[in-house]
Design brief:
Elements lengths: L6 H12 L3 E4 L6 H16 L4 E4 L26 E5 L20 E4 L10 E4 L6 H11 L6 H14 L10 H10 L6 H9 L4 H12 L2 E3 L4 E6 L1 H7 L12 H4 L5 E7 L5 E7 L10 H6 L4 E2 L3 E6 L3 H20 L5
Parallel strand pairs: 1-2, 1-3, 3-4, 4-5, 7-8
Antiparallel strand pairs: 6-7, 8-9, 9-11, 10-11
The structure holds manganese (II) ion.
Length: about 325
């Protein structure tokens, strides 16, 4: 495998390994990458006889706890000498509880292009899929031997952030790293099923409710779904379990623009817009539509809020999407 790290990055990691009494920080709303990479680092440091702990401002959600060895809360156990952040692009992502640690980070290990260089030293590989992939190469550079446990944590991190090797951040090197890790003894199939196929029954039921509400426009290329608070309440779904709802419209084949309307407990209407398309259609920039209502985002993913009835929100957003649609695609002058 070709060398993926600079000499500077290799020497920074060997500096890190000379230290002791570590605090590894995961980002707020912890995900598979920050958890898997942090646990791999924790295990490697402990094997070297070091004193190390993990902290996180937020609780690990139930569906992620198989990655955190069943642990939900990560609080400071001892005063650290060395603070290492893993997968954290900026100080705000430390969350509230451990925001103060963001001022004293000795080493940041990250893969986000948007990293703000808040740490004293930053090991940033912004071409890599995940912090897990960065960690994989750092361990190799330092001669840290993988074992079944470390391989499992790193594989989980890489698979999570690459969307099970489907996202465009997946490179040949991502596959090579995963292939090497798969030589160890752990159940990759079970891990991927848990991360990508499983959801709580309540989550699946709310998705089914959303699908039942599908309405389509413009030859089925605009897909809209709506979830009312009463449905969420009836099923007892947590707010943090509703993230998957915005992906539903994209899963309906033929959808170019997806609209997800969700009524929150306080009556606010949260609208998520998604777009995807192949040539010859020009890019439908959903952030432009969101901006009309004071929202924002990117070309393919944007969001906004409204304070009105569900019906009114549906009508307003649909009108705005169709107006932009007609401007882009139904303009005879183009
Ligand atoms: Mn990541």
């Amino acid at each position: 495998m070709k060398t993926m790290l600079t000499d500077k990055q290799v020497s920074l990691f060997s500096e890190l390994l000379k230290r002791d009494n570590f605090c590894i920080v995961m980002h707020k709303s912890p995900d598979g990458d920050t958890i898997g990479s942090s646990f791999a680092l924790l295990s490697a440091l402990k094997k070297m006889g070091k004193n190390a702990q993990i902290v996180c401002s937020d609780e690990v959600p139930p569906q992620m706890r198989f990655i955190s060895d069943g642990i939900d809360v990560f609080d400071l156990q001892f005063e650290p000498e060395t603070v290492v952040s893993v997968d954290i692009a900026s100080q705000t992502l430390f969350g509230e509880k451990y925001a103060y640690l963001s001022e004293k980070v000795d080493f940041a290990i990250d893969h986000h292009f948007s990293n703000t260089f808040y740490a004293k030293e930053t090991i940033l590989c912004d071409k890599m899929s995940s912090a897990g992939e960065v960690m994989f190469h750092l361990f190799k550079s330092a001669g840290i031997e993988f074992d079944d446990y470390i391989a499992k944590k790193l594989y989980t991190a890489i698979s999570f952030d690459s969307g099970c090797f489907r996202f465009s951040n997946t490179s040949p090197e991502t596959h090579l790293a995963a292939a090497e890790l798969l030589r160890y003894d752990f159940d990759a199939s079970a891990i991927n099923t848990k991360m990508f196929d499983c959801a709580s029954l309540a989550q699946l039921k709310i998705e089914s409710d959303a699908l039942n509400s599908v309405r389509q426009y413009k030859d089925n290329q605009i897909t809209m779904v709506t979830v009312r608070y009463a449905q969420v309440e009836k099923l007892g779904v947590n707010e943090n379990e509703l993230g998957g709802l915005t992906a539903i419209t994209r899963r309906v084949a033929g959808t170019v623009v997806g609209i997800t309307v969700r009524e929150k407990s306080d009556g606010e209407i949260r609208i998520s817009l998604r777009s995807q398309q192949e040539a010859p259609l020009a890019d439908f920039d959903v952030s432009k539509v969101a901006a009309k209502f004071g929202g924002g985002g990117h070309v393919r993913a944007a969001g906004l809020s409204m304070r009105c009835s569900v019906e009114e929100a549906e009508q307003k957003i649909l009108e705005a999407v169709i107006e932009e649609w007609d401007r882009l695609y139904d303009n005879p002058c183009k």
